[in-house]
Design goal:
Rna Polymerase Sigma Factor, Chain: A, globular, mainly alpha
């Protein structure tokens, strides 16, 4: 009988998977494959490469499930693993020339649009256009950090781990991005209020 994972925590699903549940494995793939593709394609806009990396990632998870560590955030675990998988494949394709530092400098191909949660009905069309342009003009690392933090609702610690930086650097990158957005927007107060509406937003201590 197929296991229903509705209402189960990610820690419980992960434990079932580690113990050999094919239903847990299928649930993880169905839940996260498209999300992983969306993230991976923003790192490198190569459909075949990203799909291969996701396939390799899930095959590796299945083979090594009993040796995997605990996690209470499957999305975080998979994002981090996929980024490493993509970087490794690019590095091998470039015969070792594509180092981690190069991955950090790769243009993050996110394109924010008017349909995203950043767009509040109260904003005028002109301010919407200003915000979208400002977001898309951010440096690659800032775009990736903002994407992970506010669109995928990951913690600063998780953003840091995925990007291979320390938590302080994650804070610095994100707040530098926000400062840049505030300078670009005509109304900084409106932007600040807008950002507080984002899922997972919190002010630093």
């Amino acid at each position: 009988m197929r296991q229903d994972y509705f209402g189960k925590t990610e820690w419980e699903i992960w434990q079932d998977f580690r113990e050999g549940s094919r239903d847990a494995y299928a649930h993880m793939y169905a839940t996260y494959a498209s999300v992983l593709y969306n993230y991976g394609y923003k790192i490198v806009p190569d459909q075949t490469l990203v799909e291969d990396c996701i396939q390799d990632l899930f095959e590796h998870l299945l083979k090594s499930r009993r040796n995997l560590g605990d996690t209470d955030s499957i999305k975080f675990y998979l994002f981090k693993a996929l980024r490493r998988e993509i970087t490794g494949k690019l590095n091998r394709a470039h015969k070792g020339a594509f180092a981690a530092a190069d991955a950090a400098d790769t243009d993050f191909q996110v394109v924010f649009s008017y349909e995203t949660s950043l767009m509040e009905e109260e904003l005028s069309r002109e301010r919407q256009e200003s915000l979208v342009k400002a977001l898309n003009d951010l440096p690659a690392r800032q775009k990736e950090a903002v994407f992970l933090r506010f669109y995928d609702n990951l913690s600063y610690e998780q953003v840091a781990a995925i990007m291979g930086i320390d938590t302080h650097s994650a804070y610095k990158i994100i707040y530098k991005a926000i400062a840049s957005l505030q300078k670009r927007m005509a109304c900084a107060l409106g932007l600040a209020l807008l950002l507080t509406q984002l899922p997972g937003w919190s002010n630093p201590a």
